[in-house]
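pasting for the record
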Amino acid sequence: MKKLIIIIICFTVNFANSQESYVPTKENIEARKWFNDARFGLFIHWGVYSVLGDGEWVMNNQNISIKEYEKLPSFFNPIYFDAEEWVLMAKDAGMKYITITSRHHDGFSMFDSKASDYNIVEKTPYGKDVLKMLTEACRKHDMKLFFYYSQLDWYRDDYFPRGRTGNGINGRGEGNWNDYIDFMKNQLTELLTNYGEIGGIWFDGQWDQHEWNGKRFGGIKADFKLKEVYELIHKLQPQALVGSNHHLAPQPGEDFQMFEKDLPGRGTMVFATSADDIGNLPLEVCETINGSWGFNLKDRKHKSRKDLVQYLIKAAGYNSNLLLNVGPMPNGRIQKEHIKSLREIGEWVKINGETIYGTSRGPIDPSDEIASTKKDNIIYIHLLDNKSTYFIEGFNPKIKKLTYFNSKKKVQYEKTKSGLIINISKEELDEIDTILKLEI
């Protein structure tokens, strides 16, 4: 209990410094600590767009009109959807939470909403609330559930003035922005009162209303009433974590910071969050198993077992969770290739999870060939380049013991003034990750 109180105080001080006008509750701080330790989650992008098999942006990319798009729900009948099967798949992969799209940019709600009849219960032959079923399965198997919610809407007239996307979609009318904010609040209230306790809300789409110079997001042109919205969430569920994929520094009321397809500070994407904008909140990187978020029939960019496992390791080395995405098919099934990938990751995590879960960023700066995680007086060194010799410049720890994590055998090393030289035995080399356990 004393340790928990110390953790809460530390988290409160750090977050108060970065978000002066927002003071998280004790329940929220505890949830952040849990989230920070969880390290691995499942992202699910699923909606009526899956019918077309061309990703979740198909409405925008193909400039499908409102009237044309309204036909899609009548084809959406996921008779093979099995919420418990999805949850157990995530659990077997070593994942600790699930984040699913409750409403994406196409404006279609994947839950039973009284705020809009444009939803899965009212407009599809399936007629069932998949979020309700997933919530129940998550609760049964002790899996936390987060709801993705789009602030951007290509369908509703009251998402006006328009943002930077969806402007080629015919049939979009003009409406009142304040009505749209009220609609969002009503739907968020439904999500936070009709599904029991949830992990949090994962916002996306604010960037649509930000100025963009091709390199960096600038000032915002529309008021999303973030203070009111975030306060509503925290009032209804104090422990619920709020995050927003706006690619900027954390804003007051946010509880974790996410990075889309980019390790924190790496800057590999054109829209990547600047390293200067990384705050003191728990971090999360989201990434796809192939090249698409939503189901894409022609996506052939399936990542290898090595790529996926190493991305999980690198994320932990950056003190970040990994939220790994699947895009279910319109029949309710997840692609066999994705299931296979998750099973392979799960097999690795069962053996090596100690080096990932509950760790913090280690003292060695992460790169493509090395990452480190830390837990108390133990440093886990992940060697990712399949080499026999590594030189870690500037790393001169007091070594009590250095062993291979799996075999427990001693590692040969040499300390120099400029760093640490590690010689790896051929028998211990692992093509994905050779893990060393350093006790200091």
